[in-house]
Design the sequence.
């Protein structure tokens, strides 16, 4: 079957959580810039929600912020090592004497002379989230082996039984619905990760937002929009902030629209994070199967890169 | 007519550009946090794309980042002065001895004892973008009177003739389409502003993304999604980066989908910025008229606030 490869790749996420390489940062820094696009860029976004000891700016674009200097830690993340936007930022980082490090499986970036965490190649960038995220988290947060083990076990269980995820995929497929994923801190960017997995694996449009921000705009549209029944609202649940939980419930009541609820399971932020990530992985995978599209295929993205070369 | 008030409010944007109050910041700071939600929060987002002398983090949520200390400038933006999330962040800023200032038309925040730029009340927050944005830009960027005058004239012309914007509204209305606005630096958040204007004024779902990030995910979905014909893709044009211009053209070709193009007009970043903002204002206004909904109405957002009180 065409789609077996992506399924196998999804099965490696649990092992990626145990990937223990990290950076040695022996200089003081005042702020952090993480450069990366798409499946690599999401790594910086997720990190920025988990780490708040210093300002973190994520650049998914060509330009390094002007303030970046020798007290700025720049982390370039590019699975292929050949992403033109990320290379552009890293070149500027070099000129500005930033403290620059990289995560990549090879390519040009691996030869730029930075301290580099080399990760295994041969996967889709979006299937390597753990390999790209864990070196950053391991460097800056204290992630115990217990947390890694519990996360491993949870993901392993999901690999063995993803029937709930398949059910959600079926619901989306039957209604030919466009998913709108509603996250909350510190998982707002996990909602965006779902969006991108729907885009790349299932080849459907999908969007994300988060509570409480969406209460200041989208809340006026959900119940009254045209094409009202074409959206599948998916709300993450299990915030430790009860104001957020209450917002989710009241928003559903006030708009008159039911949200499909996915509660973050786990005993730590890291475990909940990977649970939610993997849940979205499997929903998007099953939706690809139902639609009979190849979840592995990213030919249009590749074609665009070629035409721009 | 029900909707006259919002139309009158839109007509004040040109004058807001000449609003010249600013902050006196006499302490050194290392980084900036802008706190604000929805129509107030967008102010910080737009600022963060125009200013890169220091790290700027925009918080549209409850929590101040841990790093914020007496070398952090915190700018609270809340039109009403009563936004619970923003007040929560400002309370934490006070505890952390941050250098804290505020922009508001009144409410609780005006009594918290911060250096405050008071702006005129009686408008919708989303109709006060200029009042909220200009004090920040005037404090940190050099905006000449020539730029303000040219921007005034351009917006005035748009107030007198918004037939192009009406045409786009009509196209969206006829197809009952969901807008997807595609921005680029430094106008990525202006695309989000359009999204929120469609949500609040027109009561329809709408979404934004930006080049080049969308080339790493959404590009796989645009041509192949189900519900393919229900989206109206609106691409900003006129980037000074020709890689971006080329990306827009190639993305349309590769996905086989035409994008409605709105070219940023003006001789300065500020003029282009307000041109794009105002363009979206009028499209969303006309769409509300076509749908026969009240663009002024934000009753569900208000009801939610009440239920949470």
Sequence:
């Amino acid at each position: 079957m065409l789609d077996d490869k992506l399924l196998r790749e999804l099965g490696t996420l649990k092992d990626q959580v145990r990937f223990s390489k990290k950076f040695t940062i022996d200089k003081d820094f005042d702020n952090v810039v993480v450069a990366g696009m798409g499946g690599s860029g999401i790594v910086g976004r997720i990190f920025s929600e988990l780490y708040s000891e210093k300002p973190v700016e994520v650049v998914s674009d060509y330009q390094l912020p002007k303030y970046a200097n020798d007290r700025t830690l720049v982390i370039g993340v590019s699975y292929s090592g050949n992403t033109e936007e990320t290379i552009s930022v890293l070149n500027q980082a070099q000129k500005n004497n930033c403290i620059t490090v990289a995560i990549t499986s090879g390519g040009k970036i691996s030869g730029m002379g930075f301290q580099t965490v080399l990760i295994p190649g041969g996967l889709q960038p979006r299937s390597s989230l753990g390999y790209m995220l864990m070196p950053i988290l391991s460097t800056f947060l204290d992630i115990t082996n217990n947390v890694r083990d519990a996360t491993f076990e949870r993901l392993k269980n999901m690999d063995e039984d993803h029937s709930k995820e398949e059910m959600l995929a079926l619901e989306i497929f039957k209604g030919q619905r466009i998913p709108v994923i509603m996250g909350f801190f510190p998982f707002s960017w996990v909602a965006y990760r779902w969006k991108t997995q729907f885009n790349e694996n299932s080849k459907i449009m999908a969007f994300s937002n988060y509570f409480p921000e969406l209460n200041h705009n989208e809340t006026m549209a959900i119940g009254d929009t045209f094409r009202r029944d074409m959206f599948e609202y998916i709300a993450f649940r299990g915030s430790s902030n009860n104001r957020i939980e209450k917002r989710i419930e009241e928003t559903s009541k006030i708009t008159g629209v039911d949200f499909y609820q996915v509660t973050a399971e786990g005993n730590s932020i890291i475990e909940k994070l990977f649970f939610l990530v993997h849940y979205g992985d499997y929903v998007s995978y099953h939706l690809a199967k139902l639609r009979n599209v190849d979840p592995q295929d990213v030919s249009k993205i590749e074609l665009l890169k070629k035409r721009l070369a």
Summary: The first strand of chain B starts at residue 31 and ends at 35. Chain B has two domains: 4-143, 146-291. The first helix of chain B runs from residue 4 to 10.
